[in-house]
């Protein structure tokens, strides 16, 4: 099934084309379609040969299925990236019962002074 076309759909398209084009022009169009298909295959094989020549011996080492955009799944990529990291050190019972060190609140650079409200400009906008 190419582009969602089944055998029934292809037969229907061929029948409609035969009715529209007529028996006089149909062989000419079929021949031009065959020539276009041959040229497209030549273009693809030429492009593949050029890529192989330009990449050198590394061309055969590439796993092209991993580069397929249909394989892109952000959840899988993030999961693999997180699992690739080194495992976190295990927490001992003595460390887990110790109180956490006090932290100072982080102030946003978009806020005003820490002890007052956010400044408001009455002339803005």
Folded structure, characterized:
With 125 residues, this protein is mainly α. It has a domain at 7-81. It is built from three helices and no strands. The radius of gyration is 33 Å and the shape is elongated. The model has no long low-confidence stretch (mean pLDDT 77).
Task: Indicate the percent of residues in helices.
Answer: 40-55%
Secondary structure: number of strands: 0
Provide mean pLDDT, rounded: 77
Query: Helical region count?
Result: 3
The outline comes out as elongated
SS-based class: mainly alpha
For the CA atoms, what is the radius of gyration? 33 Å
Which runs of at least 5 residues are low in confidence (pLDDT < 50)? none
The major beta sheet can be summarized as: none
- Strand percent estimate: under 5%
Order of H and E elements: HHH
N→C terminal distance: 59 Å
List the helices and strands and how they pair.
Layout: H1 7-55, H2 74-84, H3 93-97
Characteristic terms for this protein:
elongated
Short note summarizing the structure:
With 125 residues, this protein is an all-alpha fold.
